[in-house]
Every structure is written in C-alpha cells, then in structure tokens.
Write a structure and sequence with these properties.
By secondary structure, this protein is α+β, with helices and mostly antiparallel strands. Helices cover 29% and strands 47% of the residues.
Length: 159
C-alpha cells in the first residue's frame, strides 16, 4: 500500500490558543470548507478533545470523495493536536502550533494511505496528481480556517 507523507505550513495572525480551540473541535470551520461535508461528532472526548471522534467526507480537487473518521489521540494546549484516521484515508495527522511573528506558525503533517482498491492500485503512478489534489484541498481548508477565525493567512507552503 502506498503511504503519503504530506506537509502543510502557514502563518495566522492570531495567538496559538485561538487556533488550537478552532482545530480541536473542527465542526465549526469544517462546515465552511466546500470540499468537506457531513461532518459530525461521534464522541465528545475528554479534556481538550482527547478521545473525540469526528466523521466526514472530503471531495478532492480530482473527481473523487473520501470518507474518514478521525480520533483525537493527544493534545497539548495550545501547541499540538494529534489524531488517527480510519476509513478511505488511514493514518496519522499532527498539527503543531508555534507562537511566532505576532501570531501562530502552523505545521500539519499527514502520514496517510488510501484504502479504496482503485486508489491503492493507481497510487504509485498517480502520486503526483494525488499530492496536487491534496495540496489544493489544503489551500482551500487553510483559507476556510482563516475566514472562520477572521484571521489573515500568509506563508502557505506544502511539501
């Protein structure tokens, strides 16, 4: 199975605690992300969302939709949110927030594999297209998060 190690970095002009609060309960800002739908919380979780489970679907820039459930497995307020995903996407996600330049530098690392059979078959050959699709989706998501928070975003990069 093909694994992807995807990274996104950006800067928001808000403090880490504000960014953390939006990310730890993603239903609010995900509702505005046009590529994401049907987000629901299946389990509330404990302090700072540990143990919370959210399910949703993401429509990629290419013509496919993936459904997943993510479980928050660790949080460190206001600097880290770690979760595991299951479904059409399986793997590990890590959000790191660092106070910098009057706001927050955000680094998202997503180590994931696709599970639908057709995607597993095509992944080795379609890797550049799948990465491009992910990068486009993340750009849309970061803009949606910034709009939701009333923040400015800068320094967006993927890799």
């Amino acid at each position: 199975m093909s694994w992807f190690d995807l990274q996104t970095r950006f800067h928001l002009d808000l403090w880490p605690d504000v960014v953390f609060d939006a990310m730890v309960d993603p239903r609010g800002w995900l509702d505005g992300w046009t590529r994401v739908s049907d987000v629901e919380r299946l389990a509330v979780g404990g302090q700072d969302g540990e143990g919370a489970v959210h399910r949703g679907s993401v429509r990629a820039a290419l013509p496919y939709t993936l459904t997943w459930a993510m479980t928050t497995v660790r949080t460190v307020r206001p600097t880290l949110i770690e979760w595991e995903a299951r479904g059409d996407l399986e793997g590990h996600g890590l959000w790191r927030m660092t106070r910098a330049d009057g706001g927050t530098d955000v680094h998202f690392r997503w180590q994931v594999r696709v599970t639908p059979g057709w995607m597993r078959t095509l992944a080795p050959l379609a890797r550049p297209a799948l990465r491009w699709s992910h990068d486009r989706a993340m750009r849309d998501g970061v803009d949606t998060l910034a709009d939701y928070l009333g923040a400015s975003v800068s320094g967006f990069t993927t890799g």
